[in-house]
Amino acid sequence: MKIKFSLFFYIVLITILSCKDSKKTDHSAANEHHWSYAGETSPEHWIEIEKNSDCDGPSQSPINIIHRDVDSIKKNHELKIQYTPSTLISEVKNNGHSIQFDFEPGDSINYKNETFFLKQIHFHEPSEHKINGIIYPIEMHLVHVSKAGEITVLGILGEEGNESQLFEFFESFLPIKEGAFKDIHQEIDLSNLFLEDKKYYTYNGSLTTPPCTESVNWIVFKDPIILSVEEVLKLKSNMPINNYRNEQPLNGRVVKFNY
User: How far is CA 2 from CA 8, 9, 14, 16, in A?
Assistant: First the structure.
């Protein structure tokens, strides 16, 4: 009889503990949020989700660049593009927020006498930055990091027209499922973007995704590159719909136009 009672007590105890663990797991899952571009985890709620982020800081990105309000200055060679025809892409991945191409050490830019190394390229559709209120079909971000950990991002807007060989190369590795990645280890020639010849805007901003880190150097090129409608649609089909952050206030920041 004692054996039966002990067995019964043991079963009841295990059942109670299991229920508690189950409730704890369910509660944790219910409170485990990750930022996105829609619903309760959209950009408007990032500061609620990412408690230790800069997402409510005074110098956030993206912005609407109003050309008549910028300070126009002649180029003084503070930006030097040092891309070569033999840049190596290490891999491509779908991180659930964008398609991202990671680079092996090599290409760099020099901005304000500091070298920033190209780390990755990713895309937003439609564009995050606006120029005179105009939203472009796509925006490409080239993210560079210095040895000190400082960040400079080149923002290149894209509009629909003729086919782009560069985007054909990028999209040759698509489709790719969310959370997946592909090793590439192939060369790409970014020098044919001819960025050193283009006019651009500069301002002090932030990353456009959490943790929205501030003190990011932004260089947004005025003239868009051209790619086909089909290329835009193919890239769009591999990313979340409308993966862009809403426009952020300038808060007295000065935007410069380098021509």
Answer: 10, 10, 18, 21
Find how far residue 181's CA is from the centre of its chain: 16
Q: What is the CATH number of the domain that holds 245?
A: 3.10.200.10
Our count of domains for the chain comes to: 1
Is 207 part of any domain?
A: yes
Residue 47 counted as domain residue: no
pTM for the structure as a whole: 0.86
Report pLDDT digits (tens) over 205-244.
999 999 999 999 999 999 999 999 999 999 999 999 999 9
Q: Which residues pair with 102 in a beta bridge?
A: 91, 120
Of 203, 205, 204, 256, give the one whose Cα is nearest residue 61.
205
* Residue count of the chain: 259
Identify the domain containing residue 243 by its residue range.
59-258
Catalytic residue selected from 33, 34, 67, 97 = 97
Residue 130 lies in a domain: yes
The torsion defined by the Cα of 121, 122, 123 and 127, in degrees rounded to 10, comes to -70
Burial string for 183-217 (b: 16+ CB within 10 Å, else e) reads: ebeeebebbebebeebebbbbebbbbbbebbbebb
Q: Would you say residue 30 lies in a domain?
A: no
Active site residue 97: yes
* Alpha-carbon gap, residue 254 to 259, rounded angstroms: 16
